[in-house]
Amino acid sequence: MAIVDLRSDTITRPTPAMRRAMAEAEVGDDVFGEDPTVNRLEALAAERLGKAAALLVASGTMANLVSLMVHCGRGDEVILGDQAHSFLYEQGGSAALGGIHPRTVANQSDGTLRLEDIEFAVRPDNVHFPRTRLIALENTHNRCYGAPLSLTYMEAVAALARRHGIALHVDGARIFNAAAALGVPAARLAKDADSVSFCLSKGLGAPVGSMVCGSREFVAEARRVRKVLGGGMRQAGVIAAAGIVALNEMVDRLVEDHANARRLAEGLAAVDGLTVDCRRVVTNIVYLDINRDRLPPAELLERLQAEGILLLAVGPKRLRAVTTHHVSAADIDRALEAFRKALATI
Ligand SMILES: *Cc1c(COP(=O)(O)O)cnc(C)c1O
Question: Model pTM?
Fold first, then answer.
């Protein structure tokens, strides 16, 4: 039975074009700056994000950690959302390894932080306080229904940051999904940010890697931090080759994932026993709540799995589905049928 894997966009496997590019990649020692394929990927990523330079790192977690450690010294403070990936799912690495103090502000359901909340969190100059050095946003916002943050909002936060002399980092793990959903080039969404990270290994389908983009000075520092974290890779062109294919061939098709997520959300909303806020599904992430007390998520997951449909439980009554290039409209229909069947007999 063919599996429809909706657990995450991290499960994507490299395309045949990526595997060919990886097999044939020209490589060198990237710590010496001599891997031509890594250099090409970094130039391409910088261009796509409208920045002067970019750096290949091992993961999105490393991308955020490196960025935060460049912007903040020990004892400095970063303002970020209480639902942010960097706050919830990165082991507190910026505190553990960078000595950076996190100041959380409530994420609104659309993934934004209220401007007045950010303003209030910025520390005045006072011997009692850490120094606020950075605001970090997440676009799209994973925990907030994959919501894209609008250009207007990004500009407003950037203006606030500038007014206070604070840097702005964007965790853009899925920034190309945001760009696709908003119909705006990723470079425009990133234009006011001092640094932007994005994942090659999620919806873009590459097997490994994330990029950190910013000014030349920022990326030079990021390269140093990457090295001390053990992230200086040698013949990394083997990885970078897939990243180049990802940027050239996998960006324009993200709209298909969004259409499939929408199809799934609308179908699920019509299933008795489930609640889905369809209006909020505009990228590749769907959250659904089970409103049958006698059906714990674990049991529903088991019933779906028996039909070859995989999802992730993310709360006591909440499941998450993410669409990728492995999932077709017909797969969505199969998933919907499995849901109907699973809930019909409860
Ligand atoms: C996945 C993700 C990351 C981390 O990426 P890894 O490659 O899994 O370390 C960071 N931020 C967001 C918003 C993500 O979704």
Answer: 0.97
